[in-house]
Amino acid sequence: MRRIGDLDPGKRSTAVLFAALGLAGLTILTLTVIGMVQERAESARLQAAGVLVVADVIDWSSGNRSSRPIAFEIAYTYQGEGHVAGVHCNPFHSCPVTSGGVVRIWVDPDRPGHFATDFGDTDGSTSWFTNIGMLVPGVAAALVGGFGAYNTLTRTEQPKPQRPRRRRQRDRRR
After folding, report:
1. Of 82, 81, 28, 78, nearest to 51 (Cα)?
2. Which of 45, 97, 100, 109 is the most exposed place for a label (fewest CB within 10 A)?
């Protein structure tokens, strides 16, 4: 494998761009996995130690032309104080409710605005990095960037075929 300094400037910039793409993909992948693990741990903690409250679903939204909701908004009352929050639906399970329905949540007694739903999402689930759908672009960017940088650094230049020299034909005059 060649050093990046040994490449001509065009290939050097290509290798750097591919490496940056691979690094960005690994960063997205890492942040998504960390976010998902933290959300699951927080959800389990709140379901074990939180206070059960019934929340009303006041609105939901779909991300595209499908009728399947991707997020919904809830309103709940805890110790006489009203709260409104949004919840993102995890792709592995669809939203279990639509407008007018109810959902069970576990509220953190120390922070009443912090909760976990019956199906595992938390009030922090609206973050991009807790969505499992971010794994696909993270893996794709990491693979394309990694293979592109590797290919740019390991490709050897094939010498261009040279044409055989043409022999000069002498002008034969008699």
Report:
1. 78
2. 100
**Cα distances (Å, whole numbers) of residue 81 to 76, 84, 112:** 8, 10, 9
Identify whether the C-beta of residue 25 lies closer than 8 Å to the C-beta of residue 142. Answer: yes
Alpha-carbon span 133 to 34, nearest angstrom:
14
Q: Global pTM?
A: 0.68
Q: What pLDDT digit, counting tens, does each position of 95-106 carry?
A: 666 667 888 899
- Checking 24-28 for CB contacts under 8 A at 24+ apart, the result is 24/141, 24/145, 25/137, 25/138, 25/139, 25/140, 25/141, 25/142, 25/143, 25/144, 25/145, 25/146, 26/138, 26/142, 27/138, 28/129, 28/134, 28/137, 28/138, 28/141
Number of C-alpha atoms within 13 angstroms, CB side, residue 101?
10
Query: Domain extents for the chain?
Result: 9-154
DSSP string, 81-114: EEEEEEEEPPTTS--S--TT-EEEEEE-SS-TT-
The span from the CA of 63 to the CA of 76, in Å, is 24
Q: Would you give the DSSP letter of residue 119?
A: T
User: C-alpha angle 95/138/144, rounded to 5°?
Assistant: 140
**Segment 77-93, tens digit of pLDDT:** 999 899 998 887 765 56
